[in-house]
Amino acid sequence: MFILRVALNTPLRNLFDYLPPDNCPVETLAPGQRLQVPFGKGSVRIGIIISISDTSKLPRHKLKKAIALLDEVPLLPKKHLQLIEWVSHYYHHPIGDVVFTSIPAALRQGKAAKIKQEIVWRLTESGGKLDADELSRAKKQLALLLFIKQTPDGVSQSRITNKFKNSRQPLEALFTKKLIEKTGTSVSTTSSARMICPQGDIPWQLKPNEEQQNAIDKIIASSATYHAFLLNGITGSGKTEVYLQVIRHILSSGKQALVLVPEIGLTPQFIDLIKDRFEGKVVVLHSALSEGERLLGWLKARDGQAPVVLGTRSAIWTPMPNLGIIIIDEEHDLSYKQQDGLRYSARDLALIRGQKEKIPVVLGSATPSMESMKNVRDGRYQELRLSKRVNDSNLPDIQIHDVRNEKMHGALSQYLLKNIKQCLKNKQQVLLFLNRRGYAPVIMCHDCGFISQCPRCNVYMTFHKHKNSLCCHHCDHHEYLPEICPDCSGHHFFELGHGTERLEETLAELLPEAKILRIDRDSTRRKGAMQAMLKDIHAGDADILIGTQMLAKGHHFPNVTLVGIVDADGGLFSVDYRAGERMAQILMQVSGRAGRSDQPGTVVVQTHHPDHPLLIELANHNYERTAQLLLDERQQAQLPPYSYQALLRAESNKQHVAVKFLNIARTKLQALTDRKLDIYGPVSAPMEKRAGRYRFQLLIQSGSRQTMKRFLTPWIEYLGNLPDSRKVRWSLDIDPQDMI
Ligand code: ADP
Ligand code: ZN
Questions:
Q1: What does the pLDDT look like over 416-425, one tens digit per residue?
Q2: What is the CATH code of the structural domain delimited by 3-108?
Q3: CA distance 437 to 677
Q4: Which ligand sits closest to the CA of 459?
Q5: What atom in ligand 1 is closest to the CA of residue 270?
Q6: Over the stretch 612-665, which tens digit does the pLDDT of each residue have?
Q7: CATH class of the structural domain 644-734
Q8: At the fourth CATH level, which superfamily is domain 397-440+497-633?
Q9: Quick one: pLDDT band at residue 527, thresholds 50, 70, 90?
Q10: Is the beta carbon of 348 within 6 A of some atom in ligand 1?
């Protein structure tokens, strides 16, 4: 018998056995190909062959035939299938869902896995002879003509669209004037991955300093084996240049590079830099692409025609036949962990991929995660330090400012306000960091104390003044601010606490001349809004920038010399044991925005706890010591990275149903493990109700990953077959990052 073991996009955990389709010689079948198969009553699904076997648990007459084979050559290479199997085991997640999470939607739906042919433009004879003066009045046409002229074989349509905005009309004009022609159609990507490296001085390359050179040399030296590096470099130390030169080396040896960044929209400068340096060789993959664009990028990468793939979390799944290196920028960033469905960590997967493909993996950060710091200590990662800022600009002076008993102007202390005024007088920019959007986190009735809660979640709603509405930041429910109190019909509301919108208002009142720019999810919702604001900042069209953590990442603001951390206390005292780490990272990152050019910077941190040891270490720019304190704390409490956790979550619109399921789960796990794992709960989630559902969780912890894994496998299988499991929405989160 010839049995195809197929992964289907269902929540069921097993593979499904099928016989080959009619008229399909068995030697044409291989793992990694897609099939159409019958499933259930009359429905047809797409599946992927995971393996081929000569036996099945089902009797022959129960086996169905697959309907059709969709791929001549396997869609997914063997390495990809191995990674998928690893992920399915590690995260205890159905293999079908892993496979389908890992490929673009167009392929899930059965679209062909072929690169469409593309138009290529080249100069005609008269175009080649043209005197540039003749086009001096049509600047766009001239620019296009000169661009096309650079490549005698012609330039593909997509390269032109990438490089020029609104290129259609000038292209047509050139075509009508018979200056350019279409060279039939050809595949845009026949060029090999090999990067042509100019000899001698390379104009676009900066001369590395000693630390950078050391990092580059170490990484290159291990480019044929698995090796994990932590590029631990303070903000402004030139990590990007290290990545770029390493990538260049990898490309010149004919291999591909995969680069991950936390969020495309937040790091436009980094992306522009990579695109500029490796012009025409970069495929960018992120969530804002159309399905067609994403498929094209994915196929180019898989076929070895995209030398560099730059993307967000999900780009870790891109198959690349000649992969030579993986780089994870800002490795500590939370967005590398998927928070629903298959809850994988792209950073952790990068290391697994590196091991399997025997290539180096570089994790870069100015504020590495505690996991990575511990891995360095344990000798699993090699640390490469960049301890100096490239342009020798000094690190900012971090002042911990005690606001106790001080007269406040809204959220601003007298002291911070004085500094802001001085900075504006010097014609320099100020950045104020407040990680809370909206006007005020709570609005209250002055007559009876009533507070508006989200009807679907058990949280207070944030007041957004410009929309005159109350908004739930968890489920996006919003409603107009009532004119009278729903409880007592009173008319007097007052706002409690400060969000970015309120801070903006306070500043506008105190400093009416200043140009204020607020950057948060609300003000940057429109496409291109972020880019426009960044442009204003660089052009000097803003005096004060107010921002949430969006502003803390990756940007350079050379004219910012004062940074204010409006409220540092939230991070010091929290139920989440990771809050201290996050606060330290954000503080270091935001401070890194100050004084990057020749002017020195100052950071003022407002707090009610000026003696807190974390703040004191941070004020000395000592992230190492801060990390040491945090790690010691974790070790004493036996928390990750000194132990391993898994979180079983259950949600239901009936409280007792979710609790019952978790109680059964707990009893079963206890019976299986004989007290070898620590089990906590069930308890309500920190946010007990969200979008109308009650949420409970069970935390499982162990000092040994192996022990935990051994018990979770049979447990999850048991839970999957439990009738009570169908009454709740449940999921298992391995290495949970937040407990919300
Ligand atoms: P970070 O480590 O914060 O990512 P960047 O890579 O953004 O730092 O570098 C900060 C600045 O220093 C950039 O403007 C970059 O162009 C510049 N730079 C980096 N390396 C060098 C170098 N070797 N010589 C001159 N300038 C450099
Ligand atoms: Zn809500």
A1: 999 999 999 9
A2: 3.40.1440.60
A3: 40
A4: 2
A5: 7
A6: 998 999 999 899 999 999 999 999 989 999 999 999 999 999 999 999 999 999
A7: alpha beta
A8: P-loop containing nucleotide triphosphate hydrolases (3.40.50.300)
A9: confident
A10: no
